[in-house]
Amino acid sequence: MKKRYSVKCLEEMPITAISFLTSEGNETGEWRSQRPVLDLEKCNRCGLCWMYCPDNAIVPEMDSFQISYKYCKGCGICANECPKKAILLIKEKR
Amino acid sequence: MKKVISGNQSVSYAVLAAGAQVVAAYPITPQSSIVEMIANFCSSGQLRAKFINVESEHSAMAACISASVTGARAFTATSSQGLALMHELLHYASGLRLPIVMANVNRALGSPFNLKADLSDSLSQRDTGWIQFYCQSGQEVFDTILQAYRLSEQVLLPAMVNLEGFILSHTYEIVDVPEQKEIDRFLPPPAPRDCLDVENPCLFGGTTDFYINFRYKMHEEMQRTKVVCRECDADFQKVFGRSYGLIQPYRCEDADLILVTAGTLAGTCCVASDQYRERDLKVGVLRIRLFRPFPGEEICYALRNAKKVAVIDRDFSPGCGGIFAQEIKSVFQGKDPLPVYEFIAGLGGKDVTDEDIGKVIDQTLQTPEPGGVTWIGVLK
């Protein structure tokens, strides 16, 4: 059973990291400076991006792939490996 | 019951009285006799604790952290290089908000190799998030270990009780070791707290957004620690009739010059103060007992009637000066600053006599403006 804490204010914060969350709670997407955008028109569903992604941030769907921006650090390996140039890196805006 | 025991034995008896459940330590002079005595308590069955022999101080602290994370009352003791080796894990202990209590027997850091008293070892750990106490007598050592456990478990921050090597650690004094039932009145068994959930063990880390919030919570609690420490000391007074405060002023009320120091140097300063009072020179002494959190407001208040302040440090930050002196100067921020005269003395256990303190007093009284750091006892 995994704990899911959503922390909205300081009072809700625990005082230590003990039994707070697993690393799944660590949303590394906030590190990203570049955002990969997948063009499903160009994508041939080969799955190379999914295989190469070091962070499991490419999620296979029924007949397609999706990028999980919660965890994607924006390393760009997927864009580099894509034989169809279907993944474009754009500047992340926050 | 009154016993004639050394400062180190005071620590051991206090740990026995506190009923520590896990003790992990690595030997180092002048600390070793603390854990040797605790090991005897464990082997004789007087203390029902798990005694863990480890291969380094780094491992000793790791073992204490692991024990404390499960809710156990943990203890370790070290000195000098041993404390330095623990440094990395000291941050983990405070970051995990674990009420570990450690005795550090102050000893000079090498090189050159030195076994004697010097506060630079623990002051080098100033920013690790540990509560720091500096003691002056064997009785205070015993009492502070008990207070440290209670305080630490209330605010969930680790505490370091410092006593100077040999001067305090190996000096035999009369120490009142109270009955266990009195101690239990002051220090109940550890209350349940948020511990590692062994059914669902997980440890969160690596994020940027949460980190600053954890640190802010630590900051808030450190601020509150001063209040809790005062309450804890007042309760201690009720049960045992002794109290120490965060700072200890001696003849400060009407003093023109106040000597500020920590640890056993304060005793010598009090003797010198009495000598100068006989000559109608109003000298007082302020001993800093709690160093982290730093009781700046209390210090300011204690110094309010003085015209000059002389800080005597048995420690040294190369490129800056005495560490207590820097902290004392910071308390006047936004207030009328007092002239602070800085002195370094007794490094590496060099004896500091009442005559040396006399030199400090004479120089401070005779010099119109403070300028630089004066070293006492350096070859001419």
Characterization of the model:
The complex is a heterodimer of chains A (94) and B (380). In chain A, strands 1-4 form a two-stranded antiparallel sheet. A two-stranded antiparallel sheet of chain A has the order 2-3. Chain A is α+β, with helices and mostly antiparallel strands and 94 residues long. Chain A starts with 33 loop residues before the first strand and ends with a strand. Chain A has a single domain, classed as Alpha-Beta Plaits, CATH 3.30.70.20. Chain A has helices spanning 48-52, 77-81, and strands spanning 34-38, 58-60, 65-67, 87-91. Chain A is built from two helices and four strands. Chain A is elongated and about 50 Å long. Chain B is an alpha/beta fold and 380 residues long. Chain B folds into two domains: 2-240, 3-Layer(aba) Sandwich (Rossmann fold); 248-375, 3-Layer(aba) Sandwich (Rossmann fold), CATH 3.40.50. Chain B is 41% helix and 19% strand. Chain B contains twelve helices and 15 strands. Chain B has a seven-stranded mixed sheet with strand order 3-2-4-5-7-6-12, sandwiched between helices. A six-stranded mixed sheet of chain B has the order 9-11-10-13-14-15, sandwiched between helices. Chain B has a two-stranded antiparallel sheet with strand order 1-8. Chain B is globular, with a radius of gyration of 21 Å.
Primary descriptors:
heterodimer; A: 94 residues; alpha+beta; Alpha-Beta Plaits; two-stranded antiparallel sheet; 2 helices; B: 380 residues; alpha/beta; Rossmann fold; 2 domains; 6-stranded mixed beta sheet; 15 strands; 41% helix; globular
Summarize this, please?
The complex is a heterodimer of chains A (94) and B (380). With 94 residues, chain A is α+β, with helices and mostly antiparallel strands.
Q: Report the major sheet of chain B.
A: 7 strands, mixed
One letter per element, helices H and strands E, the order of chain B comes to EHEHEHEHEHEHEEHHEEHEEHEHEHE
By helix and strand content of chain A, what is the structural category?
alpha+beta
- First-residue to last-residue Cα separation of chain A: 33 Å
Distance between the termini of chain B: 49 Å
Radius of gyration of CA atoms of chain B, rounded to a whole number: 21 Å
Helical residue percent of chain A? 10-25%
Anisotropy-based shape of chain B: globular
The CATH architecture term of chain A is 2-Layer Sandwich
Quaternary arrangement of the chains shown?
A: heterodimer
Q: Strand tally of chain B, please? A: 15
Mean pLDDT across every amino acid position of chain B:
96
Q: Number of folding domains of chain A?
A: 1
Spatial strand sequence of the major β-sheet of chain A: 1-4
- Shape label of chain A: elongated
Which percent range fits the helix content of chain B?
A: 40-55%
The side-by-side strand order for the widest beta sheet of chain B comes to: 3-2-4-5-7-6-12
